[in-house]
Write a structure and sequence with these properties.
The structure is a single chain. The protein is an alpha/beta fold. The chain contains 12 helices and 7 strands. A 7-stranded mixed beta sheet has the order 3-4-2-5-1-6-7, with helices on both faces. Helix content is 42%, strand content 14%. The protein is globular. The protein has helices at 16-29, 44-48, 58-63, 68-71, 87-94, 103-108, 128-136, 154-167, 187-197, 215-222, 227-230, 235-251; strands at residues 3-7, 34-38, 73-75, 78-81, 117-121, 139-144, 173-179.
Length: 252
């Protein structure tokens, strides 16, 4: 049975897509079967996977006009359910469906035994698609940067997740907060990390692994590759490998 993890933040540019792609690739290097799900209409994960213009995607799957076999793209132990620019139209259509929050869960339940991990890349909002990801997931990771206003939105994510846990998915838990694009040498970064680590609501919920600033992580996605294909000896590759180890140590 797959461990389903939603990578979520209602702010853009926080490293959600980079984390889904490279954590997924790191887990496959450890012989895990991984499915990536692109729930963002910007399609950055789909593009980075090398699937620029899929005929059908996750939107078709959710509204029932395509099957998992129709949409899934496989590359060894790493597979993808892609997105498309039409996803916002599908989300609007989904809003009129009874039980709309459960649509993704219904689909992923069908393949949960075929994968060890399913990683979901969420849009930078807390709308219907992000709620679907939380209802489908066992855990969620919040990537964030150690910068001004980094905490803005975190309280809302936790509030929404608590409501989802209470009303729709009692198995949902915070896996951890992941600092990305981090320069751990700066006093400001250290202050932000210390502040969050001292917050009673997040005790024990910060990953020990930090994703450091690394141009290879940005460039690899632009070249439609994981960092392991583009720069396997980079800091980014090392950091996501460490994150995969940490997650496997916790969840097996």
């Amino acid at each position: 049975m797959a461990n389903i993890i939603s990578i979520i933040n209602n702010k853009g540019g926080t490293g959600k897509t980079t984390t889904v792609l490279n954590l997924g690739a790191a887990l496959t290097k450890k012989r895990k079967r991984v499915l990536l799900v692109d729930l963002d209409s910007q399609c950055n994960l789909t593009s980075a996977f090398g699937a620029d213009t899929p005929e059908v995607g996750v939107g078709d799957l959710l509204v029932g006009s395509a099957t998992l076999d129709d949409v899934m793209i496989k590359n060894g132990k790493l597979s993808l359910i892609p997105s498309s620019e039409k996803l916002l139209d599908f989300e609007f259509q989904l809003n009129n469906e009874p039980g709309r929050e459960y649509m993704l869960r219904e689909q992923l339940d069908k393949v949960a035994d075929d994968f060890d991990f399913i990683l979901i890349d969420c849009p930078p909002s807390l709308g219907t698609l992000s709620i679907n990801s939380m209802v489908a997931a066992n855990h969620f990771i919040v990537p964030m940067q150690a910068e001004n206003f980094a905490f803005i939105g975190l309280d809302r994510i936790m509030l929404i997740s608590e409501k989802v846990k209470k009303r729709m998915n009692p198995d949902l838990d915070l896996a951890g907060i992941l600092f990305v694009k981090l320069d751990p040498r700066t006093k400001f970064s250290q202050a932000v990390i210390h502040s969050l680590s001292e917050n009673q609501n997040f005790k024990g919920k910060l990953f020990n692994t930090y994703i450091r600033q690394d141009i290879s992580l940005m460039e690899s996605g632009a070249f439609k590759q994981s960092v392991y294909d583009y720069a396997p000896k980079s800091r980014g590759a090392d950091d996501y490998n460490d994150l995969a180890k940490e997650i496997l140590k916790i969840y097996g």
